[in-house]
Amino acid sequence: MNETMEAILERRSTRHYTAEDVTEEQLSLVLEAGLWAPTARNRQEVKIAVARDKAWRARFRAAFSEADGRPAFANFDFDCPVFLFLYGEKDFPYIEIDSGIVVENMAIAAQSLGLGTVIIGCIRDFLRSEAGAPWRADIGMTDEDLFTVGLCIGHIERPTKKQERKEGRIKYL
Ligand SMILES: Cc1cc2nc3c(=O)[nH]c(=O)nc-3n(C[C@H](O)[C@H](O)[C@H](O)COP(=O)(O)O)c2cc1C
Q1: C-alpha 29 – ligand 1 centre gap (Å)
Q2: What's the CATH number where 106 sits?
Q3: Region at 42 (left for phi over 0; alpha for psi -120 to 50; beta for the rest)
Q4: Closest ligand 1 atom, CA of 100?
């Protein structure tokens, strides 16, 4: 099996990170993989905000958790060293698809570097709500932007068990 297939098949969602930081070199490679993802009409509307500041992140987590109320998501970012917010032009019809492609490119790139990731959708409603307005401003989003998805990146402390894939999802015409 080649290395790309291995990275795709071996990647799991990491929810336990060590305290070790992600280096600037690792981060810039992951971001590069995001920037080189294909985008609809080559519009390249997906923007990525890098959040490393743990104090700001703790405040954001508290605000999200209070508004959201689901205990399972209270520690949505698992104290990972780097959290990425993806967002972009809300009127662009492919913004969510493009974000999905960008985020997966980054997840696979991180895997190839020996890092763990988990894609985060649970903060979406909060970041699209009225209560999320000050946080959108902090992230650098404008009123024209829509938050799409987040990504935790860090060193894997505890590997995640492989979840079997459902059968019968491919049909040959
Ligand atoms: C769009 C999207 C949103 C997700 N949101 C969350 C989330 O908010 N919290 C979380 O822990 N995992 C989240 N995940 C991770 C999935 O739960 C995970 O990919 C799935 O359980 C399969 O596990 P695996 O990635 O280890 O193969 C999300 C994944 C995707 C693709």
Answers
A1: 22
A2: 3.40.109.10
A3: left
A4: 1
Please tell me the distance from the alpha carbon of residue 169 to that of residue 173, in angstroms, as a whole number. 13
Cα 121 to averaged position of ligand 1 atoms, centre (Å): 8
Does residue 159 fall inside a structural domain? no
Q: Which two tokens stand for residue 40?
A: 């609809």
Per-residue pLDDT of the chain (173 residues; tens, 9 = 90+): 899 999 999 999 999 999 999 999 999 999 999 999 999 999 999 999 999 999 999 999 999 999 999 999 999 999 999 999 999 999 999 999 999 999 999 999 999 999 999 999 999 999 999 999 999 999 999 999 999 999 999 999 999 999 999 999 999 99
How many whole angstroms separate alpha carbon 145 and alpha carbon 162?
A: 35
How much is the pTM? 0.98
